[in-house]
Amino acid sequence: MAKKSQLARDKKRREMHAKHQVQRADLKAKLRESWDNPQARWEIQVALQKLPRNSSPSRLKNRCEVTGRSRGYMRKFGLSRITFREMASQGLLPGIRKSSW
To answer: What's the pTM?
Structure first.
């Protein structure tokens, strides 16, 4: 189980990302459109920098939904490799079987 402080920090970042996602996307689109106007690009970049740092999607960390573990994350299932193996062995994941050949 991950530390509660790490889980709280990640939750706070996800909420902040959701709050500023539309505004950030609009600024990014304007930045792409104004490729030939350096002054406008500079103003848009300054506006982007004024947004909170934690609203950036690159600061989000994939974590296991059950344990909060960040390493060994399986994106398709939203679980860490350890939790995935335990749940698959117990038959809690539909359509997953232990392979043998």
So the answer is: 0.79
